[in-house]
Amino acid sequence: MNIDQQKPRDFRRPRVLNSGTAAAALLLSILFFHPLSARAEPRLPYLFTDHLVLQQGMNISVWGWADPEEHIAVTLGANTREVVTSADGHWSVLLPAMHAGGPFTLSVRGKKAVEVKDVLLGEVWIASGQSNMTYALSGATGAAEEIPAANYPQMRFFTVPKKIALTPQENTLPAAWEVCTPDTAKIFSAVAYYFGRDLHKALNVPIGIILSSWPGSAGEEWTDLNSLRREPVLRPIVQRWEVEPAGVKAFAAEPAEISVEFDDFELLPAAGSAGTPTLFSNFDDGSSRTETGGVWTYNWSEVPNTSFQLVSPGRGGSGYAARVEGRLDGTSSSSFHASFKSDGSPQDLSTFLGIRFWVRGKGSVQFQTLQPTISDWDNYSAEAIRATPEWQEVTIWFKDLRQAGWGLHSERVDWFSDQYHGSY
């Protein structure tokens, strides 16, 4: 069977820049993360990579890991501090404040030497928020003129990878600082880019922007439990979490196995009309084509330990069904995606009231629609559906779809694409 693979398209001074504000296809998002491996040599968090920007005018914290009781010397410019690693392999030093400037080399010497090159001192800001903060410069107004001009060697970006964590973390998943160029700027946050650019021009010092945003996330998900407990109005959030089943809590920290099958997609005509349901896709010809001229695709870019395949028999004991299986958690996503047309353009479905399909397996899916009028992450969606071992019929009425984060609904949904978002 031919399955078409979709190409991927996505401190010392804790000041926060906040902002709150995404077509034809079907998707199943799969989640997966890679734990960090331990190494004995002096090791720094991913925040300390080449092109690092440190905050001017404040003491500079540097930390990492090495062998227990290893002697570590940290040097930046004319300043050196020494420390002995603790019994559990941790070390940290505090370097004196420095003025804006650079470039410098940050040197960490123990049994081996580690160097971080092209380090600048300047202004460091955290850009945090939801989909508006994530929205890339490439889609912003004026991008065609701005992107070619985005050459600012003294402005750098660090994007924090998404990871669910129930306790404070000493490190991120693998990531690195990037110098602002047209190529890096166009996929970076538009809000954060323009803020950093204007600040750089106004102050004439190096600028570091740390992008830590997650579309659709709620404020309490960024807040530690003790802080939530202190506020009576927020305490019920903690109480709801505390009574969650052990399996739900475990999934927040560890990947889980999923295996979900789909079959027999039909578009439903208006009530009272003489029309009958229109077949959209049933995979029975052993291909990933849809009846409207599009194709099913799957994105493995962030979930290498999952797969999309057509399996036999499908529902009813014959033909084929589509299956997505592997290991996932709630952090990164991939997409199980079906276009209406070969060129990916939208389809006019105003004569239909909904869509029906069948699903079975282990996991949950969420039906979403993407419309040309919505260029945000927050697509129209239905409630999540938990798969069962036996085939179950699912009917989605277009009138019931809402933007997930905002609860908004348009009375007329004429042009759209369909997207599945799957989670365990």
Strand content: 35-45%
Unreliable stretches covering 5 or more consecutive residues: 1-39, 408-424
Stated plainly, the CATH topology of the largest domain is called: Immunoglobulin-like
In CATH, what is the homologous superfamily of the largest domain?
Answer: Immunoglobulins
Q: What is the helical fraction, as a range of percent?
A: 10-25%
Number of distinct beta strands:
26
Please identify the structural class as seen in this structure.
Answer: mainly beta
Structure characteristics:
single chain; 424 residues; mainly beta; Immunoglobulin-like; nine-stranded mixed β-sheet; six-stranded antiparallel β-sheet; 26 strands; elongated
Concise summary:
The chain has 424 residues and is mainly beta. Helix content is 11%, strand content 37%. The protein has 7 helices and 26 strands.
Describe the structure.
This protein has 424 residues and is mainly β. It has 2 domains: 4-8 and 24-29 and 255-423, no CATH class; 37-217, Immunoglobulins (Immunoglobulin-like, Sandwich). Helix content is 11%, strand content 37%. It has helices at residues 131-134, 143-146, 182-185, 190-203, 225-230, 235-242, 246-251; strands at 4-5, 16-19, 53-55, 60-65, 71-76, 79-84, 90-95, 101-109, 113-129, 152-159, 178-180, 207-213, 256-269, 278-281, 296-298, 306-311, 321-328, 336-338, 347-348, 352-362, 364-370, 380-381, 385-386, 392-397, 402-403, 415-423. The strands form 5 sheets. Strands 2, 3, 5, 6, 8, 9, 10, 11 and 12 form a 9-stranded mixed beta sheet that branches. The longest helix is centred in the middle third of the chain and has 14 residues, at 190-203. The relative contact order is 0.17. The model is unreliable at 1-39 and 408-424 (pLDDT under 50).
